[in-house]
Amino acid sequence: MQLSEYDLGFRFKKNTFTVSGLMDRYEEGGISLYPDHIYSKPWSNRAKSIFIESIIVGMPTAEIWCEESGYGEISVLDGTQRIQSIIDFCKNNFSLSSLKLLPGLEDSYFEDLPYRFKSTFLNRAELYFTIISYDTHPSLKFELFKRINSHSRFPVQAARNFAFRDHFNFIRHTQEHCEDIIAPEEHFNFLSPRIGYIQAANYDELFLLISALTLSINDEIEANQPYEDFLDAAAMTIHFRSVGTDALLSDIIKYLGRIKRALGKKILFDTSFSSARRRMLSTRLDDLKLTSSQIADLYILALRHEINHASVGDVIETGRTKLPMRSSRYYYRQLFG
C-alpha cells in the first residue's frame, strides 16, 4: 500500500512516569498490560527482583513502548513484564531475592522497605515511555511491531492483529460464526501461555488465509505474490474497506459449509507444532483433524467448485506424507492454474 505524505508521519510522544504515577494510572484502569494480540513471557521472582533493585539504586530502565487509544487508555506493546514486576512488588506479591547491590534488602517485601528506599522507588526513579498515537497509520504500526519483536520468534499474525484491528475483529467474528463447521482440536493451551498464544495466532492466520483466498477469487486482491504479502494484502483490504464485510463472511461460511458436507463431519484444526505430528491425520468421534495447509487446499477446491469425495480424499492422503507448501506462488497456481 502506497502511503501519502501525511500517512507517513509516525506520531508518538515521549513521557515519563514515577512508579507512584504509574500505579495511579494502573489503578484507574488507564493501562492495559495484556491486550489480546500480545504475548509476554512471565518473569521469575529473581528477574523481577533484579529489575526492582535497578530502580531503587537509580539505574535508567529500558524504554517501554505503548499505544494510546482515542480515549487516552494505554496498551503496552513492549515492557509488560517490567510494569507487572512493579505492580506485583507494590502489592507485596513477592519478596526481593538474589540481590547484588542491596543485599540488606534480601527477602524484603515492599511494605518492609526502609523509608528512604521506598521513597526513592516510588517518587524519584523515572520510567520512560514512548506512546504511539492512535491516529498513526496502521501500516506503520504493523512495521513497528514486527521490528520491536524481531529478536523473538513471535507470530507475524500478532503484528497484523495489533495494527489492523478491524481485520482482527472480523477474523474473530468469523471464527464464532463458523464454530459448528471448524474449531481448534482442543482449547488453546492456557497452561503454557506462550503455546496458547501461538496456537491462537495460527488459528487467526488460517482464517486470514481463507479470507485472502476468497478475496482473490473475487478479484479483490492479487494472489500472485509471496505468501506473507498475500496475507498482509488481505488484512489491509479487510481493515480499510469502506463497506461492510458481511458478503465476505457469507462467502466464507458457504465455502466452509461445502467442505463439511463433502467430509461428512466437522473439521478440527490441528494445533500441534512438530513436523512429525503435522504429517499425521487423526480422527476423534465424528470430527476430523486437519492441518492449516490441508484446510486451505480443501477450501480452494470449494472455491473452484471441485470438491467431492475423491478430491477430498486426495488432500487428506497427501497431508499424511507432505509438509505444508507455502511457496510464493503456490496459492495462485492452486486458484488459477
Automatic annotation (TrEMBL):
<protein>
    <submittedName>
        <fullName>DUF262 domain-containing protein</fullName>
    </submittedName>
</protein>
<dbReference type="InterPro" id="IPR004919">
    <property type="entry name" value="GmrSD_N"/>
</dbReference>
<dbReference type="Pfam" id="PF03235">
    <property type="entry name" value="GmrSD_N"/>
</dbReference>
<feature type="domain" description="GmrSD restriction endonucleases N-terminal">
    <location>
        <begin position="43"/>
        <end position="151"/>
    </location>
</feature>
